[in-house]
């Protein structure tokens, strides 16, 4: 989809659909904002049918002049940023159902919202819902919206739309990578996608293959990889947006390109979608790319441990003990608790080699997080209150919701092993999301760290507003907002 901003509404083309948003308080005066070429066509139409109720729409398809689409915003007092985004998604769904490919709108400023906010929320709702993964379809493909124009003289509009365009492009790439078959989104395939980012002169890409990973003794990453015929990769992307600043932010993403569960094999009903277990890696890669393209003045790293977790005669087993990059020994209580293993090595490597000022990891880590929050909210566990607060503010601004969970020492005690330093499963079979984070805490040292469990939000079992079915790319806007606000 191509996004543009124009000031002169007279440039509307006949093939466009012109969208107006009205609250129920404005339902009697909305015709004042109609493009002149549409006025005559409406002379015989009962325009009082427009009530302004939330989500109610009034569509007038016209020939040789722009068609008209009026969407109700509801009551001013009920409006939120999310309800406006949802309305943008509803508008996009309606246009797609009618094969409308070019739409334009004049941003409203209802209630306590300013025009720039509504420009952002409506455009985000439209573009983020304008997505279908149809790579493997040979027929019945959906026609999506191709052009979106915002008619506004607001000086903030061009920069807002430019930002949304960049994030939309990267969201599509992220969703495609997660949705793709696991024989395409392999460790080497994702590493190649990361390497292609280095065509941007501001990005450097380092890819460590199996031999280098062995030399560095990332024993937990190697353990998970044992059952796979595909070699592991460790990818490090770097961007110096503030060369004179010594501080930096590291984003670490779990990259299980397919998770069979290993010897603790996943059952039917759980294994079918496990190509999505690399969503953390995909999200940090495209959040990183968005930050670079938006020229955010921060030093940023994206670290991605990549492997499959497969079952074979060489696969690691429950009861095995392996040594992590930082020297801690780990007993394997369950081979399906593998995400924390590869993250642990990646976190310890990041602390040792990069020495960032803070670390944020994103991972589809625990089914327990889905049980707790469903597909609506991601779990947040952190060692730093200031970092937690900044992330929560970004979550509020973007609608990519987070909710904090505690990390008391009791949980850390449960991750100790009788035969090694740690076990990758807890001695108590509860609080799974917290116990996963309690394990990871052993690998971040004293660096401020936040763990975001996106097990529920990264993959939707059905479309939810502007988030499509399957891969959502949840977290890109959250991280970009967080980086921008630092």
Write a structural description.
- The protein has two domains: 2-155, Leucine Aminopeptidase, subunit E, domain 1 (3-Layer(aba) Sandwich), CATH 3.40.220.10; 181-485, Aminopeptidase, CATH 3.40.630.10.
- The strands form four sheets. Strands 7, 8, 9, 10, 11, 14, 15, 16 and 18 form a nine-stranded mixed sheet that branches. Strands 1-6-5-2-4-3 form a six-stranded mixed sheet, covered by helices on one side.
- The chain has 486 residues and is of the alpha/beta class.
- Helix 4 runs antiparallel to helix 8.
- Helix content is 33%, strand content 20%.
- The longest helix is centred in the middle third of the chain and has 23 residues, at 157-179.
- It has helices spanning 36-39, 81-97, 115-129, 157-179, 187-197, 210-216, 219-225, 279-293, 339-354, 367-373, 385-398, 409-413, 432-440, 476-485; strands at residues 2-6, 17-23, 57-60, 67-74, 102-105, 147-151, 203-208, 233-240, 249-253, 255-259, 299-309, 321-323, 329-331, 358-363, 378-382, 402-404, 422-423, 449-453, 459-460, 470-471.
- The protein is elongated.
- Gap between N and C termini, in Å? 30 Å
Number of helices: 14
Look at the structure and give the CATH class of the largest domain. Alpha Beta
> Could you say which overall geometry the principal axes of the C-alpha atoms support?
elongated
Radius of gyration: 24 Å
What percentage of amino acids are in beta strands?
15-25%
Topology:
Blueprint: E1 2-6, E2 17-23, H1 36-39, E3 57-60, E4 67-74, H2 81-97, E5 102-105, H3 115-129, E6 147-151, H4 157-179, H5 187-197, E7 203-208, H6 210-216, H7 219-225, E8 233-240, E9 249-253, E10 255-259, H8 279-293, E11 299-309, E12 321-323, E13 329-331, H9 339-354, E14 358-363, H10 367-373, E15 378-382, H11 385-398, E16 402-404, H12 409-413, E17 422-423, H13 432-440, E18 449-453, E19 459-460, E20 470-471, H14 476-485
Helix pairs in contact: 2-3, 3-4, 4-8, 7-9, 8-14, 9-13, 11-14
């Amino acid at each position: 989809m191509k996004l543009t901003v124009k000031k002169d509404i007279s440039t509307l083309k006949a093939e466009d659909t012109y969208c107006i948003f009205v609250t129920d308080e404005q339902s009697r005066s909305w015709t004042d904002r109609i493009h002149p070429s549409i006025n005559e066509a409406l002379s015989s139409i009962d325009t009082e049918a427009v009530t302004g109720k939330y989500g109610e729409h009034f569509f007038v398809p016209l020939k040789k002049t722009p068609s008209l689409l009026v969407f109700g915003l509801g009551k001013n007092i009920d409006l939120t940023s999310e309800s406006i985004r949802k309305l943008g998604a509803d508008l996009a769904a309606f246009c797609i159902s009618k094969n409308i490919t070019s739409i334009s709108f004049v941003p409203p400023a209802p209630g306590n919202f300013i025009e720039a906010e509504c420009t952002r929320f409506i455009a985000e709702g439209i573009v983020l819902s304008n997505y279908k993964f149809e790579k493997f379809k040979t027929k019945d493909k959906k026609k999506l919206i191709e052009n979106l124009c915002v008619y506004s003289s607001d000086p903030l509009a061009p920069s807002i739309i430019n930002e949304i365009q960049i994030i939309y492009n990267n969201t599509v790439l992220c969703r495609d990578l997660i949705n793709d078959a696991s024989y395409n989104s392999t460790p080497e395939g994702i590493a190649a996608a990361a390497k292609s980012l280095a065509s941007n002169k501001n990005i450097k890409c380092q890819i460590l293959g199996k031999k280098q990973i062995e030399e560095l003794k990332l024993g937990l990453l190697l353990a998970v990889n044992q059952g796979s015929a595909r070699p592991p990769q460790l990818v490090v992307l770097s961007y110096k947006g503030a060369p004179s600043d010594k501080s930096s932010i590291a984003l670490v993403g779990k990259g299980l390109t397919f998770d069979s569960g290993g010897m603790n094999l996943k059952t039917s009903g759980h294994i079918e979608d496990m190509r999505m277990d690399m969503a953390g890696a995909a999200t940090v890669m495209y959040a990183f790319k968005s930050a670079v393209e938006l020229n955010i003045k921060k030093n940023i790293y994206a670290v991605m441990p990549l492997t499959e977790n497969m079952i074979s005669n060489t696969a690691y087993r429950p009861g095995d003990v392996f040594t992590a990059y930082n020297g801690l020994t780990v007993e394997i209580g369950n081979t399906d608790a593998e995400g924390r293993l590869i993250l642990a090595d990646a976190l310890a490597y990041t602390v040792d080699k990069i020495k960032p000022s803070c670390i944020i990891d994103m991972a589809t880590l625990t089914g327990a997080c889905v049980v707790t929050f469903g597909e609506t909210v991601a779990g947040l566990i952190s060692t730093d209150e200031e970092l937690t607060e900044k992330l929560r503010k970004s979550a509020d601004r973007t609608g990519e919701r987070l909710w904090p969970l505690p990390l008391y020492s009791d949980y850390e005690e449960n991750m100790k092993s009788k035969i090694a330093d740690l076990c990758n499963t807890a001695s108590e079979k509860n609080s799974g999301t917290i116990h996963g984070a309690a394990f990871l805490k052993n690998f971040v040292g004293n660096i401020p760290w936040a763990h975001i469990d996106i097990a529920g939000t990264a993959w939707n079992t059905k479309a939810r507003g502007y988030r499509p079915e399957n891969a959502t790319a949840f977290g890109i806007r959250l991280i970009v907002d967080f980086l921008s606000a630092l």
